[in-house]
Amino acid sequence: MSENRPLRVGMLTPSSNTALEPVTYALLRGAAGSVTAHFARVPVTRIALDAGSDAQFDPAPMLAAARQLADAKVDVLVWNGTSGSWLGVERDRALAAALTAETGVPATTSTLALLDACAAYGVTRLGLALPYTRDVAEAIVATYAKEGLECVLAEPFGEDDNEAFARIPAADVAAQIGRAATDGAQAVAVVCTNVHGAGETERLEQALGIPVFDSVTATLWRAVDLAGATPSWPGHGTLLRDGSLRARVQSVLTDLLGATGADRTTFRVDLPEHGLHVDLTAGEALRDGVRSIRRDASLDQRRLNTVEWLEAERRPLVQPHFRAAPHPPRALVDVYGVRAQMLSPVQCDGALTGWISVHSLRERDWGAADREALAAAADRLTAHLA
């Protein structure tokens, strides 16, 4: 991308959508001219579970539209539609790969963006706010279950006319989001790019206490992020403000888990401007079957013996067992089964801003390669926080 122009997002848009473009333009005000959106339409008018509806999402028209957008030298392409949510996520993964193969431009879709948002925030139980008919809604629940997401489904609006989705009043969409934020939902997704769900996101997140992932917002966020930028735009909810930072934290922790063969990696950090506090993790990676610690805020983390040691020493703490001080909290051992750990401080401007934890459910010696991986992770996180 040239340094002399804004980042360009190419969006493949359902032909009967009327909400997507004005909502995207409203969100882009936060970009202060650094990002522009460019649209091409493909025929989509009806959402149902039948061959006629499915045929609207054939890749050929999308590839033709993508070639036209590529003429505008866009930096990223997105299918700004949620069809993969009921037709299958593998279909969207294949579409994104085909778009890139056809144009040489990185690509994603609205459904993949929603899944990326859930991964960045560690969401495993997701509320759904949908305009569709009940059978389409149930297909979405089944699709997301295959991706490891349990769903809390608010009663859908029962529409199948794509143009009509945008005529659902924003207040009704907001009320539906509230109904989906029950039963242990860790976030709510508005799954449709022709629904007015973005305007109330900031207010609803404050009222409900959980993230709200509007499809239009999520698609723009992931497109900009995929193009190599890091959106941090206030006023539109946590995803456009904090999502890229959380995704980068998650990537570091996943890499660290693989490099060390540990059972759990976490990062805790005090960044109030991003809604992060050390008493809840900013990210977590887990081996299969390992219990999550992500949402346990029962301990005052700064008062723990191990954290006070990090504050005083400002160097990694490597513990092959817990028979010597400093001792971890009993809950880490008794509730979460941890028997060995490494901790590394992460500092900004001389302050202990946060720390990485690497947990093992058995006693183990941490070798030189483990320590090097921890040091590299700390360096990467420090760079992301800068």
UniProtKB/TrEMBL annotation:
It holds the Pfam family GAF. InterPro entries: GAF (IPR003018), GAF-like_dom_sf (IPR029016), Iso_Racemase_Enz_sf (IPR053714), MaiA/AMDase (IPR026286), Peripla_BP_I (IPR028082). Residues 245-383 form the GAF domain. Coiled coil: none annotated. This is GAF domain-containing protein. It comes from Streptomyces tabacisoli.
